[in-house]
Amino acid sequence: MEKYDFIKFINSKDIRAHLKKTGYELSERECAYVVCESYLPLKQKHEAYGELIKNTSDEMLKETLAKRIELEKILLDVFFQRDNAVYVYRYISKGDRECEEIYASCARCMESAFQWNERAKFVRVRKRWVMGEDSESKEVSVLVNKEGEVINIASRGILSEELCEEFWSIVNLWQEQISIPLPFERGDILYTITDGVFVYENEWEESHMDGYMHNCYDCEEAVVGVYRIIRWLDAEYYTGRLKGKEKKLKDISAFLKGKMKLVDFIQSCRQMK
Fold this sequence. Notes:
The protein is of the alpha+beta class. The chain folds into 3 domains: 7-70 and 170-174, no CATH class; 79-159, no CATH class; 182-272, no CATH class. It has helices at 13-22, 28-37, 42-55, 59-80, 106-116, 161-174, 248-256, 262-272, and strands spanning 85-91, 122-129, 139-145, 150-156, 180-181, 189-192, 196-200, 208-209, 213-218, 226-229, 236-237. A 5-stranded antiparallel β-sheet has the order 10-9-7-6-11. Strands 1-2-3-4 form a 4-stranded antiparallel β-sheet, covered by helices on one side. The chain has a two-stranded antiparallel sheet with strand order 5-8. It is globular. The model is unreliable at 222-227 (pLDDT under 50).
């Protein structure tokens, strides 16, 4: 396959740097995965899918990506079509709730969202129908950036069951086939937009992104490691100041890295409660 910079679609600057430093080459299905999960505009994603379709010999991948592009374009038309619907928004940062105000215009909804929170990079906008048969079960949502560019799109009650399965069939392509190496080590304090700050507990000798579920500690479950769904392609080293409950993570990190004795860690855990 011709050389194409699929690594640029990885959201984490630390993971991008690690892959370039180590010379790791993404497989075709890993390329599809990082594009799908990227925060780059949907237009660029479709161009990248086109590169894969043009150059891959994987017929299943080719068929799946072509169908994905087709269905995403259909859903975009539905989302922007003017009809009996309203729009609401929510920020994607951990802990953010959906705005209670509703908007008749998609453009006004997006404008209000970024005016209300100028620091927000992305906003999830949902279109909901207020009239018609099965209106309560229908929804189309898009993630947009400050420029109003669509990042991704999803729906409920719009596509038929068969088409819905085809839309999400892209996920099945990389189950148990994704093993992207990560630069992170046990005890590293990491951050993602959607997950906030947490401590990574790597249970293996090498760190790979082979799925969403990993053991980690956050400021809510500080003394108990929990398996959580993490968007690993977003994860970066956290270099900010730990505030409030987040301060607990410093001792957990030190203990996991072997820089704190067990007796001191136990004492620290008692103080965390």
